[in-house]
Amino acid sequence: MKTPIAAALAVLCGLSLGVAHADATLDKIQQRHQISVGVMLTGAPFGTINPQTREQEGYNVELAKELGKRLGVATETVSVLAPNRVQFLQQGKVDVLIANMQYTDERAQILDYVPTPYEQVGGAAIIRKGAGIKGWADLKGKPVCVSQGSNFIEPLQQQYGAQIKAFRSQSESLLSLRGNGCVAAVHVSPTMHGLLDNAEWADYEIPLPTDLIPSDSVIWVRKGEHDTQARIDDIVRDWHRSGWLIELGNRTGMHPSAALLALHEKYKDAAPLQAAAQ
After folding, report:
1. Nearest to 119 by CA among 254, 274, 271, 265
2. Which terminus in the chain has less CB density within 10 A, N or C?
3. pLDDT 10s digits, 166-210
4. What pLDDT is stored for residue 23 in this prediction?
5. How far apart are CA 142 and CA 3, in angstroms?
6. SS3 of 31, please?
7. What are the φ and ψ backbone dihedral angles of 200, each rounded to 5 degrees?
8. What is the spatial distance between Cα 150 and Cα 85, in angstroms, rounded to a whole number?
């Protein structure tokens, strides 16, 4: 039987090993010459699979590829969903997450994140035309479809009194909306606005004039991965400096937000990141 002191030492050693393992991620990326990035392939502009080539493409995929390029390694993109993306990261199935996962205090308690955001995104409600929904408050007492683990759930429930129907994926949520399982589906704004360009969604609209809780889009890492966190933060700042994120957004249909333009102004006069050229 362990004495209390021995037990305490064992716990401390375990914690130390955990931190050492976490901080070793950047070394492991360099050793295997590859970074594994969890991405969402739930719709344009963030991520889709090209029906002809079967290749993954979209805004998040391009971010992942550029991150690997800046680190001087190959990139493996791994498809994740809202309910499993945190587990994929915690279990080491991916090295980082670029997966439509905006910053919240709750998420920051279980994961670490790159401090400099790469965008800012809010939620939009897509609703069948003629439903009479003109403001977020009109959703009170009505069923609203979302993805499991969405950061939109709390404000929809607590601020607006909506009845939440959470689905494993965005596609399942939208299918429920089309089957009249809810009056609105709330997901990231760029994807919802993109749907309206499709003839299949001609009977739907986004009538609410403002997005729900615009929040910083950040890259997530495991707790204690301070080396990885710092290295990627330098890269994200250099993306802002060069204007690459603005160019990427325009190219992929991810219209740059006011927050993104402000970050470019903030960093545009910074010295170029030397590591980016290596």
Report:
1. 254
2. N
3. 999 999 999 999 999 999 999 999 999 999 999 999 999 999 999
4. 59
5. 57
6. helix
7. -65, -20
8. 11
